[in-house]
From TrEMBL:
It is found in: Cytoplasm. It catalyses: L-proline + NAD(+) = (S)-1-pyrroline-5-carboxylate + NADH + 2 H(+); L-proline + NADP(+) = (S)-1-pyrroline-5-carboxylate + NADPH + 2 H(+). GO terms for molecular function: pyrroline-5-carboxylate reductase activity. InterPro entries: 6-PGluconate_DH-like_C_sf (IPR008927), NAD(P)-bd_dom_sf (IPR036291), P5C_Rdtase_cat_N (IPR028939), P5CR-like_CS (IPR053790), P5CR_dimer (IPR029036), Pyrroline-COOH_reductase (IPR000304). Catalyzes the reduction of 1-pyrroline-5-carboxylate (PCA) to L-proline. This is Pyrroline-5-carboxylate reductase. It comes from Cellulomonas chengniuliangii. The keyword Amino-acid biosynthesis applies. Keywords: Amino-acid biosynthesis, Cytoplasm, NADP, Oxidoreductase, Proline biosynthesis.
Length: 279
C-alpha cells in the first residue's frame, strides 16, 4: 500500500490493546500528525476504553473486528497469550492491503502469516517504554509480504517514538533482551544508585535527582561522544581515586556477569513465549 505521503488522508490505524505500549503508540501517532479520527483503539474494559478516548480524543471500543474492518494499519498490542484469539477475530474481516504490525514479544512472523489471509503484510516490531517520551528504540523486521512502502509507513508511525532500526527477524529475541527489556535494567540501576545515596545520608529527592541526571548524562555522552563506553569509564577513573575503588566492587559482585545472565534469561524467555503460544 502507499505510505500515505501522497494520499489526501493519512492511513486509518487501529491499535488492538490500549495498555502501556498501545497507549504509547496512540500518542506517537498523534504526535506524528495523525488526526484523532484516524486512530482507533480497542480495549477489553469499557472503563479503560473511555479513559483512552478522553485522554487522546481517539475512537475506542471493545470490538477488534469492528475496527479491523476499516483499518489500513492494524497494530497488535496485546500480550502474547491473547494474540491468537485477537487474530481469529480480525482475520475474517481484514481488507486486502492492510498492514499488520505486531509488537508482541516472542511470537514469530510465521505465527501471524499462518492465521491471516494469504499474502497479508506483517511487520514485527520490538519497541520500548521510553517511546512515551520520544526517546524509545524500536527494531522492525519485515514479514514475507511486507514491501518497502509498508516498512516506510511503519517507520513513519514509529518516528515520533524515537530511534527506528531495521533487523532480520532472527535477531528479535536478542533485541528483546537488550532494548525491549533494557529500560528495566536501567531503572534498576537508577533505583539502586538512589537507594545507595539515601544510605550514605542524602535526602531521597536529592539522591534520585543525582541518579537520574547522572545516568541520563552518561547515556547522552555515550551516544554523542562517539567513544567506546570503556574509554568513557576510564576517563572517570582517576588513578588511586574513588571510581576505581567503586568499580572494583562492581566486578567483585559480578555485576557485568549478572547483566549478561539477565540478557540471556530475557532472550530465552522470548524464545519460550514463541514456543509456548506459537506451538
Ligand atoms: N511493556 C513493554 O515494555 C513492552 C511490551 N511489548 C509487548 O507489547 C504488548 C503489550 O504489552 P503491554 O502494553 O506492556 O501490556 P498491557 O497489559 O499494558 O496492555 C495490553 C492491553 O490489552 C488489553 N487486552 C487484553 N485482551 C484484549 C483483547 N482481546 N482485545 C483488546 N485489548 C485487549 C489489556 O486489557 P486487560 O488489562 O483488561 O486484559 C491491556 O490493556 C505485549 O505483547 C508485549 O510483549 C513490547 C515491547 C515493550
Ligand atoms: O517483559 C516483556 O515481556 C515485554 C517485552 C519486552 C519488554 N516488556
Amino acid at each position: 500500500m502507499s505510505d500515505g505521503t501522497t494520499d489526501a488522508r493519512r492511513p486509518q490505524v487501529a491499535v488492538l490493546g490500549g495498555g502501556v505500549m498501545g497507549e504509547t503508540i496512540v500518542s506517537a501517532l498523534l504526535q506524528a500528525g495523525w488526526a484523532p479520527e484516524d486512530v482507533d483503539v480497542t480495549e477489553r474494559s469499557a472503563l479503560r476504553a473511555n479513559e483512552l478516548s478522553e485522554r487522546h480524543g481517539v475512537r475506542s471500543c471493545d470490538s477488534n473486528a469492528k475496527v479491523a474492518r476499516r483499518a489500513d494499519v492494524l497494530v497488535v498490542a496485546v500480550k502474547p497469550n491473547v494474540v491468537g484469539e485477537v487474530l481469529a477475530e480480525v482475520s475474517p474481516v481484514l481488507r486486502p492491503g492492510t498492514v499488520v504490525v505486531t509488537i508482541a514479544a516472542g511470537l514469530p512472523i510465521s505465527f501471524y502469516e499462518q492465521r491471516l489471509p494469504e499474502g497479508a503484510a506483517v511487520v514485527r516490531v520490538m519497541p520500548n517504554t521510553p517511546a512515551v517520551v520520544g526517546r524509545g528504540v524500536s527494531v522492525i523486521s519485515a514479514g514475507t509480504h511486507a514491501g518497502a512502502e509498508d516498512m516506510a509507513l511503519v517507520r513513519r508511525i514509529l518516528a515520533a517514538t524515537g530511534i527506528v532500526v531495521e533487523a532480520p527477524e532472527k535477531d528479535l529475541d536478542a533485541v528483546t533482551a537488550i532494548s525491549g527489556s533494557g529500560p528495566a535494567y536501567a531503572f534498576y540501576l537508577i533505583d539502586a544508585m538512589a537507594e545507595a545515596g539515601v544510605l550514605l545520608g542524602l535526602s531521597r529527592d536529592v539522591a534520585t535527582t543525582l541518579a537520574v541526571g547522572t545516568v541520563q548524562g552518561a547515556a547522552t555522552l555515550a551516544q554523542q561522544g562517539g567513544e567506546h563506553p570503556a574509554i568513557l569509564r576510564e576517563r572517570v577513573s582517576s588513578p588511586g581515586g574513588t571510581t576505581v575503588a567503586a568499580v572494583r566492587e562492581l566486578d567483585a559482585h559480578g555485576v557485568r556477569a549478572a547483566v549478561v545472565a539477565a540478557a540471556e534469561a530475557a532472550r530465552d524467555r522470548s524464545r519460550e513465549l514463541g514456543a509456548e503460544y506459537a506451538g
